[in-house]
Structures are given as C-alpha cells and as structure tokens.
Amino acid sequence: MNAIKELRSTLRPAVLALGAAGMAALIAGCSDATGKAAAGAAPGAPPVSAATVLEQNVAEPQELSGRLEAVERVEIRPRVSGFITAVNFKPGAEVKKGEVLFIIDPRPYQAEADRAEAAARSARAKAELARLELRRAERLLGDKAIAQREYDERAASQKELDANALAAEAQAEAARLNLSYTRVTAPINGRVSKAEITLGNLVDASAVLTSVVSLDRIYASFDGDEETFLRVSRRAHAGQAVPVRVGLVNEEGFPHEGKLEFIDNQLDTRTGSVRMRAAFANADRSMTPGLFARVRIDGDSRKAMLVSDRAIGTDQNRKFVFVVGEGGRAEYREVRLGPVFDGLRVVRAGVKPGENVIINGLQRVRPGAPVQAQIVPMTASAQPLQDKDAKLAAASVNAKE
User: Fold this and answer.
1) Domains of the chain as residue ranges with CATH
2) Mean pLDDT of all residues in 311-337
3) How far apart are CA 30 and CA 206, in angstroms?
4) Dihedral, CA of residue 147, residue 148, residue 149 and residue 153, to nearest 10
5) Dist. CA 68–CA 248, nearest whole Å
6) Is the pLDDT at 249 greater than 80, yes or no?
7) Could you tell me the CA-to-CA distances from 14 to 7, 11, 258 in Å, in that order?
8) What percentage of the chain carries pLDDT values higher than 90?
C-alpha cells in the first residue's frame, strides 16, 4: 500500500505537467488558427460616390475687392466773407443744381453794388458828353474855327472817358457778382452732407460749408493683378466693352452690372497691381460712395474642367482630390484650383476630362486603397449625393450581415 502511494505522488506532477503542456499547445493552436483566419479575411472596399469631371466653355471670372466712389464730389466754399444768415437744407437730403444752401448777409454787398452801379452811370454820362463835344469839334475844325491841337485833345479826352466808363461798368459787374455769391447754391445734383458751419458764424473763402456728391452714376474703384490687367487691357484699349459686376456686403452674388471705364497707365511695382475703375447706374440710390464692394470681371470664354467643391480636400497648403483609377483604387491627385462657376469649382491642373473623382465618402478613402464607387451626376447640391451615399453604405452593411 505504501508503495502504491509513493507511485501516485511520483506520477501526479508528471501528469499535471503533461496536461498543462497539452492545454498550452491547444491554446496556441487555437490562437494560430484564429490569426490565420483573421489574416485571410481582407476588409471590404468602402462605398463612395464619384462623379465624372466636366469640361465646359466658361468665361472664367476674376473676383476682386474695391470701394465705391462718387463720380462728382464738390466741397462747398463761400466766395465772399460774411455772416451766415440762413441754412436752407436738411443734412443728408438730395438737392438740385442751383438750389440755395446757405445765405451770407447780403447788405454790405448790396450797398457796394449800388455804389458801383452809380459810378458806372456817372462814367457813361461823362463819356456821352465827351462824344457830343467831339462832334462839335469836328464841325468847328471843318470851318477852321478851332486848331487841330484842340480837336486832338477833345478826341483823346473822349477815348479816356469811354475807357473810364468801361472800367466803372466792370466794377459794377464785380459788385453784382459778389452780391450773387451771398447765395451759396448747389453746383450739381446730388446728396448734401451736414452743415459744417452753422447759422450766425462768420466765414471767409477758406471755410468748407458742406459737400455734395452725385448719385445718378457711381464708380467702383479696385486694384487688379497683372493677370487681370493683361486679360482686360487689350479689350479695353481696343474699344471693346468689358462688363464688370458688383455686389454689396448685404447682397447675394453680383446684382449690379456696369462697364470698365478706366485702367491706369502703369502698374504699382510695390504691390504688383494696377488701379481700375468701372461706372454703374445708381437710379435706386442703393450704392453710396465709400461702401465696400465685391467686384467681378468676366474673362474670355475658354475650356475648363469643373468639379464639385465636395471632392476637394486640403493637405496643409495643398489641395487634392481622389480619382477612381484602374482596379477601382483611389489615386491621390494634387490640383490647382480656379474660381467657382455655376456652383462648380474650376480645376486648372491635376485632373483630366472624363475621370471620376470621389465626391462623397472621402473620410473612408486612403491613397491606393480599393473603393466601391457609385457614379452620380456632378452637381453643386450636396443633399442628393449624401442620400445616395448613405443608402449605398447601408446596403453594404446589410450584405455583410
């Protein structure tokens, strides 16, 4: 019996060791099998939406920033000095050419005008008397009743008095002008500012009373780059109309249409830009001088490739798209972009017409990885494509289940 107990105590560690080794082998085998199975099951290609790159003739626009300027702007200054006795306008009101804005005390100028008129009449009377005496002298000279010298003196006196009469008349006209200048009028049609100098103040010719800006037409001034200059200067100098559109900060798009009117004669070498100006009708008075303006100049029509902005990704300072290449694999393409045309982005380099670019599901795409692409129309609206992409993803999940 003791021998049997000793045998059992001897065999038990061996059996336990054998069992542990078998269990370890079993676990290792299961793990290896699981790993092989996992390695053999490749993940499915992610569902994406792709659209074909469009090629169209587009008049590629150039968008710039500018400011509105008045076609005419006049600072109203008095031509004579005196006290302001009346202000006849409301600040910010529209005024007509010739409308009286200020009145300067006219009494001193009225008195001066009366004095000058009286002096002119006196001078005219003296000149008339000298002409009558000269006629008498002519008759007396014919009868040899006076000497030639006396006749010559009377002729010279008559000419001197005529000149004095003209000078007196000029002084009277100057006095009448000064009297008229006491009524300060609007020189143009437009909108008046506020009165800078109010009733009762003494003013002279150096004072600025107010200002008036025209409203019927308005300028939009902006700086164009060298590309814009080269594109439009040829047409402008050839006499061709260059359309320009403008939008204000509270407006959608560019609702105001005008024409390029001025291109400066040289570029600013410090900024690489050239000053330009376009004129616009302003019948509704919606455009006011000084406002910020978004300016768009339409370019010449040429072929361009168009894609949706949803297809464009950003990698630091670079823009890229994924193209569905051979074997359904995603190809990374760096692109150079242009402006937006009818909701689609102009691509100047990086893609070719007819290629399919991924526009939905970019977050599931890796360069060189296979994708399951569904071709959809190239549109500017995102909602229809998102719905299709969601349906495609749901169908893929159901198929796997």
Assistant:
1) 47-60+302-400 (2.40.420.20), 63-71+213-300 (2.40.30.170), 106-181 (1.10.287.470)
2) 81
3) 103
4) 110
5) 10
6) yes
7) 11, 5, 101
8) 40
